[in-house]
């Protein structure tokens, strides 16, 4: 551990207690503890979190208000996305995953680099307002990651992979979903239902595909795993920010 991480951890222990970030410290130990076989390619697995690939979107009291707000706002979100896709295509970019970049996977960001993307307030005002008031303000979003409209073009395939860690989970609001689209997590395939949310742990191997004839769009939000605590979240931000700095990432 670097002095920066040690200092951050010491401050968290002083504020919250000596044992409050033990799980984070165990995650950083060589080997990192046991994990599910379908999490084998994830970089960091924090012990003590439920090893559940698919989550009921309404099962977690912390996250249920987010799900409810997004589903209630679906009609407005879909309309503003359609307008942006038709008239402001230059605001979309190829999605660059940590493993690859795909030109058949387009993204329009609402939250990135720990902050709301302010120009998205004009492009997608309903989605931006919900994100600001229900997700970012109450600190339910993982600031290490992002929120974006995710559009898979016809024929696009996201190949099987594990994301980096298990201490955040991925919420999908199905904005516009044609036939022929599906997502597989830990071997279980589901389809999106337009206007509804899916919630899953992307440290498990997952993949997605659009075999239809029209683009598939979801609004994706990286949320803190609801079983993580406030001191753990602060410690995780500190350690991952320092790791990114050492690796030369922004």
Task: Please specify the SSE layout and strand pairing.
Layout: H1 3-16, H2 22-27, E1 54-55, H3 64-72, H4 74-87, E2 93-96, E3 101-112, E4 115-116, H5 120-123, H6 125-136, E5 147-152, E6 157-161, E7 168-176, E8 181-185, E9 188-190, E10 197-200, E11 206-210, E12 216-224, H7 230-246
Helix pairs in contact: 1-7, 3-6
User: Biggest sheet: strands, sense, closure?
Assistant: 8 strands, antiparallel
Globally, the shape reads: globular
Indicate the percent of residues in helices.
25-40%
Radius of gyration (Å)? 18 Å
What number is the mean pLDDT?
95
Number of strands: 12
CA-CA gap between termini: 20 Å
Describe this structure in words.
The structure is a single chain. The protein has 250 residues and is α+β, with helices and mostly antiparallel strands. Helices cover 30% and strands 26% of the residues. It is built from 7 helices and 12 strands. It has helices spanning 3-16, 22-27, 64-72, 74-87, 120-123, 125-136, 230-246, and strands at residues 54-55, 93-96, 101-112, 115-116, 147-152, 157-161, 168-176, 181-185, 188-190, 197-200, 206-210, 216-224. Strands 1, 2, 3, 4, 5, 7, 10 and 12 form an 8-stranded antiparallel sheet that branches. Strands 6-11-8-9 form a 4-stranded antiparallel sheet, with no helix packed on it. α1 runs antiparallel to α7 and α3 (64-72) runs antiparallel to α6. It starts with a helix and ends with a helix. The model has no long low-confidence stretch (mean pLDDT 95).
